[in-house]
Write a structure and sequence with these properties.
This protein has about 190 residues and is mainly alpha-helical. The chain contains five helices and six strands, in the order H-E-E-H-E-H-E-E-H-E-H. The strands form two sheets. A three-stranded antiparallel β-sheet has the order 2-1-3, covered by helices on one side. It has a three-stranded antiparallel β-sheet with strand order 5-4-6. Strand 4 and strand 5 form a beta hairpin.
Length: about 190
């Protein structure tokens, strides 16, 4: 019952992104960013140009992403302002990565933290923004739904009033004809 209700609301099982037929997604190619069924995962492995691709079980995506986040390399971030300089800190005041020259020229008295901590702080901020946007999206969809219901109600009222006007027009036209006929008979 719950599945049928969720399907009515627009949720459709994902199909394999290679064959587009099977709904039994079991694998993900991290390089292609494809969700694959077992048959297509086997075929994907056989293609020579994909021999360096990493294909993981979809049950392990969260674990893999956590491991990837743990291995982020912040040692070679080039400075966007000073050519040849590598960023070494994160300026919390401006929310940007900075190189030694940036620190001495622009960010001298700003609060600095390690790049990894700056990354974590920025990711928290992004997740908060995403959460806020999701909440606003839900609220907007709700308001749009209410507006749709209101518009439908108003459209019905409008049509009803049009029918009343047409009906009244017919009655009045009939009355005018009767009156005209009466006047014409007297002459």
């Amino acid at each position: 019952m719950a599945l049928s209700k969720s399907l009515q609301r627009g949720q459709v099982p994902l199909a394999c992104q290679m064959c587009e037929e099977s709904n039994e997604i079991k694998w993900k190619c991290l390089l292609c960013d494809f969700l694959l069924c077992t048959k297509c995962q086997t075929l994907h492995k056989k293609v020579k140009s994909t021999d360096q691709h990493t294909i993981i079980d979809i049950k392990n995506i969260a674990t893999y992403q956590q491991q990837t986040n743990d291995k982020l390399d912040f040692s070679n971030i080039p400075c966007g302002i000073h050519a040849g300089q590598t960023c070494c800190l994160f300026c919390q005041s401006c929310e940007v990565v900075v190189c030694p020259l940036c620190i001495t020229t622009i960010h001298e008295k700003h609060k600095m933290i390690e790049l990894a901590k700056g990354y974590e702080q920025t990711m928290k901020t992004v997740k908060t923004y995403n959460s806020d946007i999701d909440k606003q999206l839900v609220q907007t969809v709700k308001v749009l739904s209410e507006l749709g219901i209101f518009k439908s109600s108003e459209d019905s009222k409008y049509e009803l009033e049009k029918q009343k006007i047409s009906s009244r027009e017919k009655v009045l036209m009939d009355e005018v004809k009767k009156h005209t006929n009466k006047l014409m008979e007297r002459t």
